Structure formats: C-alpha cells, structure tokens
C-alpha cells in the first residue's frame, strides 16, 4: 500500500514538473516572439498560457496579461482594453499599464475614462508629454467635435477587399489618374502567400489602380513582380513629382532575425519599374527606417525611424537624397515628434507636411496632423479634425496635386481592425448672386451697373442685360456691400453675407431705382388722421428715404405732401405743408444736411396722375387718368374712397444732382 501511494505521489510530482516545464517553455517562446516583434504569434501563445498560470501567481499573470494586451494594442484588436483591465486587476506593478490602457480607451472613444487613466499615470511620471496631452483629452475632443471641418469622407469599395488590409494610398503624379496603395489581398491563386510574422496575415504588396477614359477607377492590379518579391513585406510607397522614382518600405522578414524595415527605391522607364535597390540612410543597418515621403523638388526624403537620440517611439526624420545615398540626416524635432509614434508622413505639392501621431492627443489611435514650417524653422502643427480623423487609426493621406481631395487610410468601423482606403474632398462651394435692376414701375433698366465690395477687398462690377438681369460669383465667408446705378436714376445700396454658408447657394437681390426726372411716391409714410404727426408705421419708409439720400450724397430733394379734395383747400394746403415739414424734420434729425432738403405742401392742387403700375393695381383706373374732383365724383362710392386715398400721398423729387 505504501509502495503504491509513493508511486502515485511520484507520478503526480512528475506530472506537475512536466506541466511547469511546459508552461515555462511556452512563456519563453512567447516572450521571444514578443521581443522580436512577432506580435501575432506572441499574442496567441500568451492567450493560451494565461489561463494555465495558477491563480496564486498573480505577478506572472499580470505580466503575461500586460504583454498580451500590448500585442493586441499593436495589432489593433478591439479586446486590448479588457486584457489591460486584467493586468491591472492582477496588480501589474509598472504604471505604464495606465498609459497604455488610456491609449486604447481613447481609441475606443471612451474619452473620460481615458483622461482618468492618463491622470493616474501622471502621478508617477508628471513630465510625460503623451500623458499631459491625454489629460486634456476631453476638452480637446469636445473642441474638435464642436467645429467639424467641411470635408466629405466615404469609404471606397473599389479599392478595398474583404478580410484584408488596404492602406497608404499615394498618387503617382499630379494628374491624379494613377494611385498606388498597400494591401495583403490575394493576387494569384497559384501562389501561396507568405504570412507576416508580425500580424499572422499575408504579407503586404504594392498595388496600383488607374482611371479609364470615362474617369472611373479600374480593378487594382499588383505592381510588377520585380518590386513585389514574395519573401518580403512591401508597401507604404511615395513618388517624386514626375512619378519616375518610387520609394517604399520593405521588411525582409526572416525567422529569428532581428532585421527590421528598410527603404528601397525603384526607377521607372516607360511603363516598367527597375529592380529595387536599398536606400542607404544610417550606417547602422539594425536601425529600422520606413514610410518614405518625398519633397516636391525630389531632393529631400522624409522617413520614420526609431533611431537613437529621438523623442521616443517612432519619430519622423528627414535627409537629403541623391543617387541612393542620404546626407544631412536630422530629426524633425519636438514640434513634430513626441514620446509616442509619429508615422506615415506625406508632403503635399505646396510643401505642407502631413503625418499621423498617437502622441499629440486627438480623437484616438493615430490622428492625421498638418504641419507648416515657418521662417524660423518652427513648425505650426494642427489636427486636421473631424471627419478625416476619428477615434480609430487614421493615416497615410495623399492629395491629388494641390487640390483639397484625395485618399487616406482608416480602420474606423472595422471589427477586426482591418485598414481600408477612404476618399476625402473639400467641396468647392459656389456662391452666385443674381437679380434684376428695375425702375419704380418694375420695368427693367438695361445697362445699369451693379458694383460689389467685400470686407476682404474683393471688387466685382457687372452690367445688366437688356432684361435688367445681372449675375456674379462671390467667395465664401464674405460680407458684401452692393450698389446699383444707372444714368437718370438714383443709386440704390444693398448688402449680402456668405459667412457661415456651408453649401452652394444662389442669392437673389433685386434693385428698384427711382428716376430723377419725376416725383417718386413714398408708399410707407403715414400720419395721424387729420394731423401731421408721423405714426410709428412710417419708420420703415422714413429709414428707406434716409438710405436713399445717403446712397446719393450729391442730390438735393423736395419733399412734398398732398391731400384729397375733401374739406377746405386752404386747410388742406396748411396740413400738407406741415406734413412735408414733419418728414424733413425727421431726415434732419437722422443726420441729413438741412440745405439738401426742401418741404412743400400742395394740398389738393396736384391730383395724382395714374401710371402703369397704378392702372394695373386698380382695374377701375386707366393710365394717365387724373384723379381730380370731377373724375372722382363719377366713380362708385367705394372707388371714390380708394381714389382719395391715392391722392393723400407724400412724394420726393430730385432738385439737383450737383450738391457740393
């Protein structure tokens, strides 16, 4: 019995030892893969061993969970957040876990929780720039959300393939009809594609797509086999302005090798690309370089590297390039780089630098930033905002020439974190002003002139057509003053604003010009019954009269008032004189010089002569009818009252056009 028991204990001990050795061996293999950047394989091994570590060994469980979460974060797996939570729960001792958890919370759009974790990390490392930026996260995100840009973005189905990555688009040249991008999609069913040791997915290759004669994008094709050699992982390419030199990233991934990424280049002659050659940047070949971008003159290359003397993570560097050799290598400095990762630079044809960063705050993951170099070599950097940026990874932007349209990469809305190509465009909004210039009777005034002056100094002058119409283009975000004028007519001012307009729009502004050769009736001047006191309802008409005088500072004017024939003629004349003077007094109080104004009361002496407009408005009247007492008494009682109302009017008449 004792012998049997001893045998059982021995077998159990051996089994436990075998299990411990197996677990330790698996952890070592996972750690080795993690150390050399084989995150896909490492993550899978960590996942399998984590559940087999005894619960009492919390320190090991915390460390394994942290490493697994790090792999998931790098691979853009959505469940990185919950694995970091496990690491914290198991008591991972390094405060770095809070910084990393904050980053994935930010990428998952949980901004308040992310800011809280950044603040926890700052208690341990109060000078960390990434954490400082992250602590301001909530306010920064709210500011970006409050002012979304006018860019329109949408996914491009023609460029993307199911269950594969497509990213880093780059135009061949300014024509915008050939686009290159990186993808791990299948391109030949007869060839078994090698999987990346980092992602566990097929290696990336460079594809191109071109527009046909109808302006539609054709099917993407893999670039020549001379560039896309199977044992390598290729992509993230850029071109000189002529499209004759391609620079691209290449990872010669070999098992158990510490060789990182390199930059290669190829020349194009006709339609073919030459064999790729390595671009020599650093003498130390173990320093990784990637993500090339080229200046408009082709003499400067921008690239990403984790070279020594950087700011932490991956930095953007620059160098002079000639014949496959680089000189004057320098880090772009603290304006651009952070302790986080700055990657995927692009140089627009006007020299503006665009890049992605996860160390400058923003919406989450990688955000795209715009950088303009000043005369003092300082960079002015700004987040390009919503909707180009999201809480996911947004990177690898390319512009069609100097136009505000092109493509970029994003994994927004992708459950598995696959990158896809999106297009963006800043709509060219067109603002048109059109209208008519008419006389008091709504007849068109041909050859009138409409002038516009904006607050930006923009000046436009157009002439009306025979039908009195005009049309002009105006810019956005302007406040404009317009003036319509024509020989024999008074000037008329108008105003227009395109400030805040967010879509194309046609504005309409008509002008009614008053002739200087005959009296003009003021239709909105009212008095108390039987008195000369102006009513509040007259305010709008009086202000319009002030405006007419200000628009025409060279005129003098007679203000006349008229009554109907009812009552005593002498009383009517006195009443009309006082009414005309009331109007003149208002104008003087409004700032019009008194020597430009004359008041006259005509009483019933000048009955109204029916014009075309009045004849159309009142069917019982004909053009040139004179509304005197004899004519009115022949009308029906109802029409008599209407005719008397027409006679009770206030008019102005231009006396001179040469005032001062």
Give a structural overview.
The protein is α+β, with helices and mostly antiparallel strands and 660 residues long. The chain folds into 4 domains: 27-146, Tetratricopeptide repeat domain (Serine Threonine Protein Phosphatase 5, Tetratricopeptide repeat, Alpha Horseshoe), CATH 1.25.40; 152-425, 6 Propeller (Neuraminidase); 431-512, Carboxypeptidase-like, regulatory domain (Immunoglobulin-like), CATH 2.60.40.1120; 520-656, 2-Layer Sandwich (60s Ribosomal Protein L30, Chain: A). Helices cover 26% and strands 28% of the residues. The strands form 8 sheets. Strands 6, 7, 8, 9 and 10 form a 5-stranded antiparallel beta sheet that branches. Strands 1-21-20-19 form a 4-stranded antiparallel beta sheet, with no helix packed on it. Strands 2-3-4-5 form a 4-stranded antiparallel beta sheet, with no helix packed on it. Helix 5 runs antiparallel to helix 6. It is elongated, with a radius of gyration of 40 Å. It starts with a helix and ends with a strand. The model is unreliable at 1-19 (pLDDT under 50).
């Amino acid at each position: 019995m004792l012998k049997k028991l001893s045998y059982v204990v021995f077998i159990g001990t051996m089994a436990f030892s075998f299990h411990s050795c197996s677990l330790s061996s698996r952890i070592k293999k996972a750690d080795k893969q993690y150390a050399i950047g084989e995150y896909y394989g490492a993550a899978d091994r960590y996942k399998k061993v984590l559940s087999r570590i005894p619960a009492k060994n919390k320190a090991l469980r915390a460390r394994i969970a942290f490493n697994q979460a790090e792999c998931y974060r790098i691979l853009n797996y959505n469940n990185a957040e919950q694995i970091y939570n496990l690491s914290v729960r198991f008591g991972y001792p390094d405060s770095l876990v809070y910084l990393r958890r904050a980053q994935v919370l930010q990428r998952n759009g949980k901004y308040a929780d992310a800011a809280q974790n950044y603040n926890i990390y700052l208690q341990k490392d109060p000078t960390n720039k990434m954490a400082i930026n992250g602590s301001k996260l909530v306010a920064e995100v709210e500011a970006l959300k409050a002012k979304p840009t006018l860019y329109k973005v949408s996914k491009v189905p023609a460029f993307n393939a199911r269950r594969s990555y497509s990213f880093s688009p780059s135009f061949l040249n300014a024509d915008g009809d050939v686009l290159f991008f990186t993808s791990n999609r299948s391109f030949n069913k007869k060839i078994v594609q090698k999987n990346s040791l980092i992602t566990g997915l097929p290696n990336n290759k460079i594809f191109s797509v071109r527009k046909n004669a109808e302006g539609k994008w054709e099917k993407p094709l893999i670039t020549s086999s001379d560039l896309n050699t199977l044992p390598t992982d290729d992509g993230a390419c850029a071109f000189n302005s002529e499209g004759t030199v391609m620079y691209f990233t290449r990872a010669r991934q070999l098992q158990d090798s510490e060789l990182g990424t390199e930059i290669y280049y190829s020349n194009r002659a006709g339609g073919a690309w030459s064999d790729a050659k390595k671009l020599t940047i650093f003498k130390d070949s173990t320093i990784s370089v990637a993500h090339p971008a080229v200046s408009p003159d082709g003499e400067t290359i921008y690239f990403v590297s984790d070279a020594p003397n950087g700011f932490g993570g991956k930095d953007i560097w620059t160098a002079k390039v000639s014949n496959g050799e680089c000189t004057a290598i320098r880090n772009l400095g603290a304006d651009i780089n952070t302790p986080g990762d700055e990657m995927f630079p692009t140089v627009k044809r006007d020299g503006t630098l665009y890049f992605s960063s996860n160390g400058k705050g923003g919406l989450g993951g990688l955000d795209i930033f715009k950088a303009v170099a000043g005369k003092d070599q300082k960079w002015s950097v700004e987040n390009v905002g919503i909707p180009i940026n999201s809480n996911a990874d947004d990177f690898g932007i390319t512009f069609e020439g100097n136009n505000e349209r092109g493509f970029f990469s994003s994994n927004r809305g992708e459950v598995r974190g696959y990158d896809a190509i999106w297009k963006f465009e800043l709509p060219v909004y067109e603002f048109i002003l059109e209208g008519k210039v008419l006389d008091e009777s709504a007849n068109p005034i041909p050859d009138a002139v409409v002038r516009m002056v904006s607050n930006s100094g923009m000046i436009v002058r157009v002439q009306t057509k025979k039908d009195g119409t005009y049309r002009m283009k105006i810019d956005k975000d302007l406040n404009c003053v317009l003036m319509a004028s024509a020989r024999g007519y008074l000037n008329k001012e108008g105003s227009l604003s395109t400030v805040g307009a967010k879509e194309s729009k046609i504005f309409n502004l008509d002008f009614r010009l008053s002739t200087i050769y005959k009296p003009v009736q003021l239709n909105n001047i009212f008095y108390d019954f039987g008195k000369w006191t102006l009513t509040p309802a007259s305010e709008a008409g009086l202000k319009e009269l002030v405006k007419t005088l200000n628009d025409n500072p060279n005129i003098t004017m007679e203000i006349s008032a008229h009554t109907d024939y009812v009552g005593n003629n002498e009383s009517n004349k006195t009443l009309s004189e006082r009414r005309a003077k009331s109007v003149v007094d208002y104008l003087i109080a409004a700032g019009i010089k008194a020597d430009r104004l004359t008041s006259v009361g005509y009483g019933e002496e000048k009955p109204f002569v029916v014009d075309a407009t009045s004849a159309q408005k009142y069917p019982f009247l004909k053009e040139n009818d004179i509304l005197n007492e004899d004519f009115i008494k022949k009308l029906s009682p109802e029409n008599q009252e209407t005719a008397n109302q027409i006679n009770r009017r206030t008019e102005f008449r231009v006396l001179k056009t040469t005032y001062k």
